[in-house]
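Whether sequence alone determines local backbone shape is best considered at the level of individual chains. When preparing material for the folding task, we compiled for one chain both its residues and its backbone structure tokens. The sequence in question and its structure tokens are set out directly beneath this paragraph.
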Amino acid sequence: MALLTTGVSIADETPSYVAYIQGGEASITDGTDEIIELTVRDIVPNLYVSEKDYGILVPIDIMKTLTYPLNAVLLFSGTEDESTSLVEILNLSLIGENKDITIKAKPLEFYEGERLKSFQSDNTGLNTINLTTTSFTGIYIELKGNSIENGSDPECVRRCHERYPEGNGCWKQCIYR
């Protein structure tokens, strides 16, 4: 009698990288089941996608093609203080020719990843944020997929960045090979 077993091995950690969105003033509306709606005005029209020494600007439109939920950090800065909140983005939409962004999110109670780990100790939670003093909002989003450095061709990223310094063009083929 022969016994045949088949196994599948999955890496402990899914490759990921961080995308950064920079914006201005923000407003938060409470919803049901701890879900909030965050609107950030005057966003920069490009994401900065980075990993270690690699970085590239990508048009913000790419956010429409991503699969949600995504882990993220909301950073609110003002003249007096800075607040940080770890959240799970459930949905995201771009408004007014991509000048504003609306995010539906809920607080992230436990974060198991690596990319946003440095923000955990500063996590103040959404209920402590004073938006009346906030003039700057940053959003760090953990994106799953091939990393810029290891999962893609670094030479492709370098060539793409040289040809398209504004982040347009071939970046997606370098990252999602």
User: Anything to note?
Assistant: The chain has a mean pLDDT of 77. The beta strands are 16-23, 26-30, 36-40, 46-51, 54-59, 70-78, 82-95, 100-107, 134-144.
